[in-house]
Amino acid sequence: MTHTRLVPGLVTAAVLLTLPPSGTADETPAVGAWQNMRPHLYGERPISESGDELMTIEAPASTPDPAATAVTVHFGEGLEGRVRQVRVIIDNNPSPLAATFTLRPGLALEALDLRVRIDRYTSVRAIAETTDGQLEMRSAWVNAAGGCSTPPSAAPPGTLGEVRFRPSADGHALQVSIRHPNNSGFQIDPRSGDPIPPHFISRLRLLAGDEVLVDAETGISLSENPTLRLRSRDPMPSPLKLEATDIPSQQLFTATWTASPAAGTR
Prior knowledge:
eight-stranded antiparallel β-sheet; 6% helix; Immunoglobulin-like
């Protein structure tokens, strides 16, 4: 496998190239990246921000691990089967748009879990767009420091692209993890002192046959060894195929999960 080494001085530019301009480092999340991104992503469309019965977001107020902070988006019965797209935005990260999930129509999603890097104090937002164009946003405040520049784990690297599937006992949830450094471009190699070039998963897809269940555009704000967990009102379809693509090598990693005969029973 061939890896492309980026010029260190271009790391930040490469990561931020596609982002709309954000405010100064002293700005709070309320007037930071989101305010600049909103018109680019949603124009002047109204966005509802209230109603826990429809949607909530869960994240620790003070994260024990800024390089791998758990974020969970919950969907109430009023949104199950109606969500077309979910964006997760971390206002004060160098790359605020952490992930964009496009969902299969009718997928009765109850919860979406992921692990993200938090670079400093910030609001973490989830914006759901329904099939009829309704927008719902919920946010949580997280206090953290240095998640995007934390050096890679000292644990053995394992096999690049190795995939693990962890289904729930009732077959309604599935966790997918892929072995990958997901280097942000802001990390320093503790041994050499050199910048570590960006090398991250840019796309994750879950397919049921020829049908795409979830299509996720991702980036450096996902943690090392990116992990995604889906919980649905209905049993997860089987078999499911994962396709993951990284940057800059453009290598495609694939794996298939097949439910056990007992999965899906309560």
